[in-house]
Amino acid sequence: MSFFEDIEQAIVTRLEDKLSDLNPKPKIGRGRDLGGVKERSQGDLRVIVAYAGIIGVQEQAPTIPHIATITQSYIVWVVARSAKGHGTQDGTKELADPVLMRVLEALMGCRVIKGQEPLRLSPSTVEPVYADGFGYFALEFNHRKTVRGGT
Fold it and tell me: What's the pTM?
């Protein structure tokens, strides 16, 4: 298993499945796609899964520093551009709202990889951003995993 790539891809795969019946249907991507949203967008929705780093480390015991449980953060961005209201905050909120709800339903408490810890919803450290007719809405999920170092 990889450090974070497997979980990130499993989140993307789950969202592709659970959001497939939405209309409009969002395109699902990974963190590397976030920077190019404006250039590729035609007024559609995007959901971007981005690894946000390690937010917690808990050693098993002071005498066993080579085994720890780490908590990693994944931010799921819902990016909306709406022609309604000329790209106002209200237009992008209206477009993003059902997608945000579906993302919550799909990921809260979900084990995206069998045998791994479930994802946990976390208070978002990122506020919504509105720029150039786009609305960027973030949901943050945490995943814990035990790692072992050299002895």
Answer: 0.85
